[in-house]
Amino acid sequence: MGRGPAKSSAKLSAKPADKTSLHLRLDFGGERSLGPGKIRLLELIDETGSISAAGRALKMSYRQAWLLVDELNHMFKEPVVSAQTGGGGGGGTVVTETGKAVVRLYRDMERRTFKASSPDVRALSRLIAPVARKVL
Amino acid sequence: MGRGPAKSSAKLSAKPADKTSLHLRLDFGGERSLGPGKIRLLELIDETGSISAAGRALKMSYRQAWLLVDELNHMFKEPVVSAQTGGGGGGGTVVTETGKAVVRLYRDMERRTFKASSPDVRALSRLIAPVARKVL
Question: Which residues 100-119 of chain A have a CB within 8 Å of chain B?
Fold first, then answer.
């Protein structure tokens, strides 16, 4: 996934202007939210097949990563991550079809959002003071 | 606004799906960020002419509100809020032209973003479990 250069627009859109970035969080009610952290965790679980490896990559403890996965699994109608048993390798962790759909929809939303907002984001960036005041 | 069924999309987009809402935060680097809280504070200062009244409406202390205003004033090239001296009323607090531009651009960005993201947001909402599990 993601080898062709045509796909690099996704990278660009993550930084709508110079040092400016836009972050999206969805609230579904009942304290259920979805933002870039959980999505990145799902992507890394999908890549590594392991909650602990994904957590490590995000500098979180296994417990932290596991709690986020548990939260995600209860948030959606169907689990987004499940243990894969059988086979030879002692089983791994997989992102389910629902989980993959969640990641895809979130990234689609981000792409559309970054594109739609970029004129306003650029205009806002131009109003920002050029250098951050040094604090401490 | 929002009487005809065609125009109701603007209203709808503030709540992209049933109980679902989308929140945007801009990061400009140097720990300078802009989200719905600061924007709402500016709008309320513009409405009330008072940092303390705006803070009260958001259930924050005067100190909290003042610190946010100070942060905003240093974040942009020009202050977004300034004290108005003179006149009869002992002076009030006004949102500057830059401050008004910031609010307008942010709300424009939100509107465009909500519109662009609504198909994905709806699709994600449909994957969410219908009732939050009762915790506690």
Answer: 101-102, 105-106, 108-109, 112-113, 115-117
